[in-house]
């Protein structure tokens, strides 16, 4: 069986990564590509690394009037929105209304509370009835909802790396005094849009903190932890910019009410993830590195119980464009379609 | 059908890249791994990016006595030698004598003239009768010899990027006044061995020339060009070290006796390579970048005919660990076995 | 004695580097700073690395009407234009007319032939009478003209690195069959303006050629070589983008009519440069690296006479923001003012 | 007045940085250089970036017998030991006994408790009577002891960046519930010695945690905080490896018993540091970046009081080879000698 899909926002980095995956997905055919600013006629003129792989014309998002979407529906069933926050808000309802399944990679449908969205995104929120319909696509944590969903809000990159490490603690309501998350991301997470923060000479051989106290993944993480534990959760998260292209490593400091041993932590993870193909819990004493998941859909998790301080410290690494965006989107596609969740996602990390 | 293979030198970067490819090759099973210095018992302890992919024990090269090799032959048919120059020299004959097919990634069997080898490698040459038996594995240029061979000397990384760009000119005996090759490579080409030249703080945010006048790929390139044109060829080649992990870009300046047009250059390449799946000739005005072949087996070639100077300038990009080493080795395996040459090698470049 | 200076274009990378130098120059006081787009009120808000060093307000270039310039003249004598090509063209004449000494870091006054300027820059050329008044500020090659000048066209970064290596050959009219220049530059040479070519994710861990056949330093180099040799000179130059912030390394291949020895090359350089404090000719067998001149005003030159091919190969490294822009501008200031040319320029390269 | 100094360990990165500073220090002459492994005869053969700056022969540390040290004392007064931990332990006493003033950049004399040293360094501790004589050289925190000392244990790089940010809180005994330090360092901190952890291909475009729970700066930080607050202090610190050459950024999370405002934090820092030339407290809302202190002796500190969580979060950036090693060593020299503490240390950060 072949599923025909549309990709909107095909020229951003998440869109390009989606295409890389889907071109090798056995059950999917990419039928239509839409981009925001039409610089070229074909994708491989814009991204020559695709030469010999793809020959589909790219069209402008501005063409996506309702009739056009209805017409697309004749040949396609599902749309990936790799569009920025603020754009998906309007596009997703149109596609849903036309009968499409929708996987949205933006932040527009992740926060269920429109007030929270407007506070953190500084933009108008999506309509509540669409916010309600969306399923938060953290694949390993909400697989059943995803399987039954037809509208996925694909999680944020930081949120994915952090929630996968924390979920086993929160869903068991292990009493936690405080959680501090020190997260570091490569530059591709900021996308292809130009800015001083992504200008080579400002980033290379440099390291900095950014969006201090303002990162929109903070309420996203808190919403999910609250859902898992059943009580209002607050986290401390700080985001830093690494002079690398891909990769997020989050170091998470947990102050627990009761001490834990290494073995208990290992046990928690084993229980939750041992059948999860994309989560690799590292053996005690071995810690993840961003390069070790480069180009793959893995989330590598390490842990350390500090005997001196009693804290449990977690380390979680993902490729922000794969498990943090396009990879998880395809994993969610596989879940929705009832396919093996690894279809199209068996890439081995490229190292070195 | 499944071919069982042995990899010797499994812990070097070429070996690791071979394993990455072969783990996803439909017709190959890796049966045995040997490494030089046994630091760990399993490959994924040494290279955790392989966790969940491979569970084969690694053994020491020192175990490879003749009896052991004979024993390996009972379960395997082909060996990849990803060993350093000076080591393959002795290992390849042992495996050949035991009936193995051999693909050697070192420089030991590339130069047919032992005197030349000793001059450039400053080591003892392999035995002449084995030098004679080896086939130079430049896949697109010598496919027939490779198909009939059972002992492949896999080309050097610089040599591959340069020869693929130059072959159409030399095999047609187009009169060339001079050729100057300015080549630049990422650091992984120097392997996993530690040296000041590969020490992060000495390379990062730095750029330099190295092995001035001494690079052992110079005689390799000259030997092949001489073979193609039928007359003694000499090239000027300079090698530079880029602060990147993977990738070679060679800029080649050709002074021709007679002027050429862009169209003629395009035509030459079309004739030679249009059915070659791993060579992508870029349209006029578009030039290759190393990142556009990252993690893939492509050789991307661009050209520019300078109207002001009359020179033809060629640009050739490869991933030095793929097309420059392990990728081409697998391509040669496919050719030798009579398989489709793209088996296991359809990775799309990872960009960005 | 203290010279009061104005800097226009203070927020670009060359402007910022000028300020770094001049803040520690014993004879200079920075009196006024102008920038193009006024984002902040003070320079250290825009560039916090200057905190505790500078407290001068920054004003908009748009204020630079004739009266304003006349007013500036009351407190200042010299202006550095670190403005883009196309802007200096109009500003320099205004400042000259007001009686300022002018050092222009743009390309607007380097090419004496306005037709050539318009062909390569795709912009309107400056008025011929101002083109005639400008002195090409290649400090070690034209020191006398610079000393007598009051309007300096500061050389391009590539041109500086290449011309310093070539001048001894051309001014002696050594017969040269051909010269091929393969130049590589760090990203800061492209300035602070945003573009896809300087977007971190497109440059990091990547390497590419750019402006193929179109780089505006080609006619600049040819103009100077022609002036030195007394006959029309043509060069082949190709420019590449390195994933580093600062530094240019040019590899130059000279085909001479008559063979040269290493000793003769060394002798040429010794004759021309032995009293030049910013040119370091490397001993035979040692080659320059960009990091070895990082943050300094040096031009490091190495050479290699290839016995196999007869070619003389030159290697020249500079920090593009120092000797390739602001450093040489200050060196020219020192020459113009009759000061020791090293004033303010004794920074030791930062390594590693 | 001129002070003649000896540098032992001149070829390591801290040694090389010391030389860069001291060559431009108005009151110091470098008289003798000793290195561990004698590869070259002169320093500029080993480090060509010093060409034209230094011409002193380098000798082997193995020559440093007692008589030799006594002989050195005839022409020199002070020695910098830029030797590794385990080496300084034996060398410092010899130099002290010969009447030298000693500034030791290793970790051998930082921990006053030899048991703690042996636990964290896994080496034999120095003799207790020399441990007692050493003064911990955190320049801004212990200036009086340093001024009176003749034997300085120069602080560790991480410790410096962290303690300067924390000292105002601890010396005032502000009640702190917990402190978590997430520190990130460039690779030069690991020195010039070769290891897999500093091999370019393993570090470039990668990010990882290292020495989890084992970093020897943990007890150093605790010792100083304990001394400042008067009660036993414990910290959580995690060290990460950035793919950059220079720079440390530490993000520090403080849980205070009582809430603080931004203004109070600013006030603390103002009180302690407003006359300190090398500490730059950033205005509210502006945060330090490693590149903004590159090549300079600054410690840049930013702060953020999180209204949501009540935590005070501190950001501290230094150049690990400058303020984290050689720069602070020279600052301590200046203090010891009664000179202006900025002598030789007025370098402006190099940006970009």
Automatic annotation (TrEMBL), chains A, B, C, D:
- Which InterPro entries does this chain map to? AGPR, AGPR_AS, AGPR_dimerisation_dom, AGPR_type-1, NAD(P)-bd_dom_sf, Semialdehyde_DH_NAD-bd
- The source's superkingdom equals Bacteria
Question: What would you give as a GO molecular function for this chain, any one?
Answer: N-acetyl-gamma-glutamyl-phosphate reductase activity
Q: Which keywords does this chain's UniProt record carry? A: Amino-acid biosynthesis, Arginine biosynthesis, Cytoplasm, NADP, Oxidoreductase
Active-site residues, Swiss-Prot/TrEMBL: 157
Pathway(s) this gene product operates in, as recorded in its UniProt entry: Amino-acid biosynthesis; L-arginine biosynthesis; N(2)-acetyl-L-ornithine from L-glutamate: step 3/4
State any GO CC term: cytoplasm
UniProt-listed CDD domains: AGPR_1_C, AGPR_1_N
Any idea where this protein resides? Cytoplasm
Q: What is its EC number?
A: 1.2.1.38
- Any one Pfam family here would be Semialdhyde_dh
User: Which Gene Ontology BP annotations are present?
Assistant: L-arginine biosynthetic process
Q: Which reaction does it catalyse?
A: N-acetyl-L-glutamate 5-semialdehyde + phosphate + NADP(+) = N-acetyl-L-glutamyl 5-phosphate + NADPH + H(+)
For the protein in the UniProt heading, the enzyme class is oxidoreductase
Domain called Semialdehyde dehydrogenase NAD-binding: residue spans: 4-149
Q: What is its main location?
A: cytoplasm
Family statement: Belongs to the NAGSA dehydrogenase family. Type 1 subfamily.
**What job does this protein perform?**
Catalyzes the NADPH-dependent reduction of N-acetyl-5-glutamyl phosphate to yield N-acetyl-L-glutamate 5-semialdehyde.
PANTHER family assigned: N-ACETYL-GAMMA-GLUTAMYL-PHOSPHATE REDUCTASE, CHLOROPLASTIC-RELATED (PTHR32338:SF10), N-ACETYL-GAMMA-GLUTAMYL-PHOSPHATE REDUCTASE, CHLOROPLASTIC-RELATED-RELATED (PTHR32338)
* Protein name as catalogued: N-acetyl-gamma-glutamyl-phosphate reductase
């Amino acid at each position: 069986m072949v599923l025909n899909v549309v990709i909107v926002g095909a020229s951003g980095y998440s869109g390009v990564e989606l295409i890389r995956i889907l071109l090798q997905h056995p059950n999917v055919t990419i039928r239509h590509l839409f981009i925001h600013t039409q610089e070229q006629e074909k994708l491989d003129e814009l991204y020559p690394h695709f030469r010999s792989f793809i020959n589909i014309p790219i069209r402008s998002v501005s063409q996506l009037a309702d009739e056009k979407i209805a017409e697309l529906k004749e040949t396609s069933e599902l749309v990936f929105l790799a569009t920025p926050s603020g754009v998906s808000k309007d596009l997703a309802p149109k596609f849903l209304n036309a009968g499409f399944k929708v996987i949205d990679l933006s932040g527009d449908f992740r926060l269920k509370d429109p007030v929270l969205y407007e506070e953190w995104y500084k933009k108008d929120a999506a309509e509540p009835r669409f916010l309600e319909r969306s399923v938060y696509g953290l694949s390993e944590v909400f697989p059943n909802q995803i399987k039954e969903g037809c509208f996925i809000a694909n999680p944020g990159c930081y949120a994915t790396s952090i929630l996968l490490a924390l979920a086993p603690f929160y869903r068991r309501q292990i009493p936690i005094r405080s959680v501090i998350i020190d997260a570091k991301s490569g530059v591709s997470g900021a996308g292809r849009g130009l800015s001083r923060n992504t200008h080579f000479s400002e980033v290379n051989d440099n390291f900095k903190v950014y969006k201090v106290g303002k990162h929109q993944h903070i309420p996203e993480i808190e919403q999910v932890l609250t859902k898992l534990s059943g009580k209002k959760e607050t986290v401390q998260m700080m985001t830093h910019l690494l002079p690398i292209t891909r990769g997020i490593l989050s170091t998470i400091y947990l102050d627990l009410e009761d001490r834990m041993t290494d073995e208990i932590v290992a046990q928690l993870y084993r229980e939750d993830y041992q059948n999860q193909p994309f989560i690799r819990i590292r053996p005690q004493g071995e810690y993840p590195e961003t390069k070790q998941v480069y180009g793959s859909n893995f989330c590598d998790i390490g842990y350390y119980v500090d005997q001196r301080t009693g804290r449990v410290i977690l380390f979680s690494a993902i490729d922000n464009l794969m498990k943090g965006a396009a990879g998880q989107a395809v994993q969610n596609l596989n879940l929705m379609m009832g396919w093996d969740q690894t279809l199209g996602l068996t890439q081995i990390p490229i190292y070195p």
